[in-house]
Amino acid sequence: MSNRPLASAGRAIPLLRAGLIAGIVVAAAAYPLAALTGIGAKATAHAVEQKTDILKTALPAETSYLYAPDGKTVLTMFYEEYRQYTKIEDISPNIQQAIVAAEDNRFYQHHGVDPKGVARAFVSNARSGGVSQGASTLTMQYVRMALRDSAKTPKEVQEATQQTSLRKVKEMRMALEIEKHLSKEQILERYLNSAYFGHRAYGIYAASQIFFSKTPANLSPVEAATLAGLVKSPSEYDPITSDQKDATARRNYVLDNMARLGYLSPDAAAQAKAEPIKLRLTTPPNDCASMDPKYRPTWGFYCDYLKNWWSAQPAFGSNRLERMDKLRRGGYRIVLALDPKIQAAAEKNVGAKDNTGSPFANGIVVAEPGTGRIKAMAVNRNYSLNLSDNGPSSNPEAGPKVKANYPNTVAPLLGGGTLPGYQAGSTFKMFPMLAALNSGMTLSTSFNSPYTYKSAVYDGWAPSNASGAMTGVQTMWSGFGKSVNTYFVQLEEKVGADAGVRLAEQLGLRWRTDVDKDQASPAKAKKWGAFTLGVSDATPLEMANAYATVAAEGRYCEAIPVNSIMNRDGTPAMYTTPGGVQREVAKPRCRQVVSADAARAATDAARCPTGDTPAKGGCGGWSTADSVRGTVGRPVAGKTGTTDSTRSAWFVGFTPELAAASFIADPDNPFNAVGDGQSEVPVNAVALTLREALKGQPVRQFTPPSDQIVG
C-alpha cells in the first residue's frame, strides 16, 4: 500500500508559491515579535545560508558497535544517543504511515509549510494569547532536528530548539528550500532516523529495539502507532513507566488518523485499538561495563584498552574529548584483534585464578610480532563496576573505607591507561643488550662479573648479583641466561645507559611516574645505571610488544587492539600521516628500530633463560627459567624479572609467532612483596599460554644471527 493517503493518491494538491509566502506572513502574525523586527527577511537570509549545510550535513549521531573477531558477534556499543541509521526501504510502511498520521496529515500535499496548519495555529494562538500550536510540518520538524544534530556549540543547540519567532519562521523558509531538493521519501527517512522516542532511543531503529526488540521492518500497525505517538511527548506518553492509559489513548488517536487517511480499514483500526500495548523491552549495552555478560568479566579489560587506545588516536580528533565523542556518535563498526583461542588460554593460565581474594594480581598480555596486534589480555580479576564484595585495600595508607581491586575492578591493570605499571626487574636487561648489539658489539662480549661491582661511571653505585654462582667471566648468552647484574652494569657502561633508555622508548615504553620521567630525561639518563635492573615501572602491554619487536627481527609495530574499523558508510576509517599519506587506522604501523641481525642476536641470547639451546653460543650451564622450553615444546626465548624482596615478578617470553608478558604484583600496595614462592607464577602463565595458543601449528625456527655479530 502507498504511504500517501488514499483520498489523495495520485493527485497531490499544487500550492502556489505566493500562498506559501502568505502562510509565512500569517505565521509572523501568530508570533508577536515577528511583525516588529523584519524577521521574515532575516529568516530568509538564514534559510538560504543554512539550507546547503543541512543537505550536506553529516548524518545524525549514530551508535558505534564493537564486534568480536568474527565480525558478527556484538560485544557492546558506544553511544550518547542510541541510534542506527536505517534506509527507508528497511522501514515498515506501518511506521511511515503512522508518523504521518501522528504528526502531519497533509505531509504529501504541502511543500514544507502547510498554510492550513499555519491558519489553524494562528486562530488557536490568538485565542490562547500565547503559542499553543506551532503548525510544524514533518519537514519543519526535520529542519529543527537537523540543526540540533549538526550544532557544534551549546548556543547553536539553543538557537535550534528555543521557542522564538525567529526560529519558527526560519524553519519555515528552510523547509521550503529543503523540499526543492529532497523527495518526500528522503525527508521521511531522515525524520524517522532523527526523531526522539524516549528512553535514549533516537531514531526508529533504536525505538523498535528498545520497545519491541525487533527491527523497524517488522513493526505491526499497533506497534507503529505506539511509537509514532511518542514523538509528540516521549515522557507523557511513555508506555514503560506510566500505567499506559495516556500511551494507549495517544496510540488510539494515531490509529484513528491512520484509518481516516486510508492507511487502515475501520475494522482493522477498531481491532488494533482493542489490543493492549504489549512491550518486549531491550536494554542495549553501552560501554565496556555493560557488554555481553558472556564476555564482560574477562574481555572487559580488552574493551577498556580499546577505549584508551582510541582516545589517543589523532585520526578521531585533536583531543581526548573529541575522540571519545567520535566513538559515541560516529557509527563505527569496530572488530577486535583479540584471538578467542589465545584469550581462552590466557584466561585459563593466569595464576591464582581460584583465589580472587588475593591482593596479588597476575596478568598476561599476548602480542603478535610483525603487526603489533594484541591477541589476548587476561588478569585474575573480574571486569566490573560493582565493588560491594571487595575487601579493604592492602595499602595501609589508604584507610579502611577504600576498597581493594579484587575480585572486581575496571582499573587498567594490564596497561593502556594511566596506571604506571610495576617494576619489571631484569626483563629490562633486554634494552641495553639490544642497544649494544645494534651499536656493533657482539654476543661474545665478555666481562669478569664479580658478586658485587662498584661502578665508577655511575658514581660508585655497587649492585650485587642474586647468587654467588654467577661470579666469573660471562658473555651475553650466559649473562642473560643467568641474569647476572654485574655483567649488565658493565655492558651498560660500554653502550651508555641513555642508549638503553632511548631504545626502550622506541620500543613503546613510556615513563609515567615523576621519578622515572626525571631519570629518563636527557640530563640524567646517562647516569641511570639502575635502569638495566628494571627499577622503572612498565606494563605487561608495553613489555609484550617490546619483546615482540625482537621476535619480529627488529621491526617495531605500535600496539593495536583492532582488526578493522569501518565508517558508518562501510569504508575503512582513515588518517593522514605526518608525511601526508592516507592510511587505514586499523592497519599495522611498523618501522625498523634495530637491525635484523641485532634482533636475531638478542633472540639467540634470550633462548638461554628458557632452557632452549641458542644457535651460536653457550648458556653457561644453567638458567633462570629452564622449564619453559620443555613446556612450550618449540623454540622459545624470554627473560625473567624480579625486584627487591620480590615485590613483583615477571616473565616475558616469545616464539616467532607470539610474544607474551606476565607479571604478579599488588597493584594497591607495591611494597607488599609477592615472595619468592610466587615468582614462578608468571613463568608458568606465559609458557602454558604459548603452548596452548600454538597447539597444532607448524613449528617455526628462529633465524640464527650472523657470524659477524656472534664474534
TrEMBL record:
Protein keywords: Carboxypeptidase, Glycosyltransferase, Hydrolase, Multifunctional enzyme, Protease, Transferase
The keyword GTP-binding appears for this protein: no
Limits of the Penicillin-binding protein transpeptidase domain: 364-666
Catalytic activity: [GlcNAc-(1->4)-Mur2Ac(oyl-L-Ala-gamma-D-Glu-L-Lys-D-Ala-D-Ala)](n)-di-trans,octa-cis-undecaprenyl diphosphate + beta-D-GlcNAc-(1->4)-Mur2Ac(oyl-L-Ala-gamma-D-Glu-L-Lys-D-Ala-D-Ala)-di-trans,octa-cis-undecaprenyl diphosphate = [GlcNAc-(1->4)-Mur2Ac(oyl-L-Ala-gamma-D-Glu-L-Lys-D-Ala-D-Ala)](n+1)-di-trans,octa-cis-undecaprenyl diphosphate + di-trans,octa-cis-undecaprenyl diphosphate + H(+); Preferential cleavage: (Ac)2-L-Lys-D-Ala-|-D-Ala. Also transpeptidation of peptidyl-alanyl moieties that are N-acyl substituents of D-alanine
Keyword Transferase in record: yes
Record domain Glycosyl transferase family: where: 74-258
PANTHER family hit by this protein: BINDING PROTEIN TRANSPEPTIDASE, PUTATIVE-RELATED, PEPTIDOGLYCAN GLYCOSYLTRANSFERASE
Protein's name according to its UniProt entry: Penicillin-binding protein
